[in-house]
Amino acid sequence: MELIEIDGVDAAQFARFHALRDDVRRHDQEFPVGLGLTECQVLFARQDADLRVEGLAVVDGDTWLGMAWLDWWLQENTHIVEVEIAVHPAHRRRGAGTFLLKAATARAKAAGRTVLSTTILGDYETGDSAGTAFAAARGFSRKHTEYHQVFELPMAAERLDELEARIAGQHDEYRLVQWREHTPDEWIEQFADALSVMGEEVPMGELDREPMRWTPERIRQAEERRLEQGRFCHTTAAIAPDGTLAAYTQMGGAAGNPERLYQWDTLVRPEHRGRRLGMGVKIPNLRSLQAELDHPAVLHTWNAVENGPMIAVNKYLGFRPVAQRTNWQQTL
């Protein structure tokens, strides 16, 4: 077996790297998720202030056996390397995964990183999979669990009207604002703060991880990166009478994977909870997303198993759980 470094410059090589990753996901997941080719290649090519991405592939002659994706965080979590290892089903149990893990570990140690972290999808009931068995056998510990939930779109307009009617009058004192790819200047300071609060509020179990600290500059960088990747985003925020950005939600996807859409963050600030604001921002945001949807798609989202209120909101909308996503870490 031979190790190849993937830099994203060689387009043909990167296409094989991405195809292997996506093939594994399609084989192992009933509802596959993951970035498209352009989305991935942009991450490898960019020189961002907060993230560096590295790829490895293990090959046997001209046969690609497996791949590893390494995220190096450069602002927060500079003690962690996030690693994803995927081995093609036809080439498992030949040592390719162990080979890749050893290579990733050596790189992490050489850079002074002290924690390897990975995320694995597994069975809905137990969270178990070939990936979790591999991680447990090599010294990783399960630190956090989320439900992977899906919802097939489009939702009927009548159903949206019905859901909206059920929460009518519960937050009339709030007004809604919506935007697409660029956060309006008038809201960017408050939105940066809300994103930081989201990082602090979201349940993280026993994970050794620092929340991201957002600034207007970091938002603009993320927006630039998202556009370069061919991604799109719909945001709806609720504004309290005092002008405070009280809640927000974001949904989107990418042109390269039109059948895969994502419900990203939803936050209701603690002092504004109990007014159905979660539903109050999700429903109009879903309307915005569907207004441009001309094909069937699956909307994916993830929630910590202990986040009962948000799971209930998603269930009310029509999401159903299909898998567990578990987070594992190993101290080096």
Automatic annotation (TrEMBL):
Q: Which InterPro entries match?
A: Acyl_CoA_acyltransferase, GNAT_dom
Mind listing the GO molecular function terms for this protein?
acyltransferase activity
- The UniProt record lists the N-acetyltransferase domain at 4-160
- Going by the record, the broad EC class of this enzyme is transferase
SUPFAM superfamilies named among the record's database cross-references: Acyl-CoA N-acyltransferases (Nat)
EC no. given is 2.3.-.-
Q: Which Gene3D superfamilies match?
A: 3.40.630.30
* Keywords linked to the UniProt accession: Acyltransferase, Transferase
Q: What protein name is recorded for this chain?
A: GNAT family N-acetyltransferase
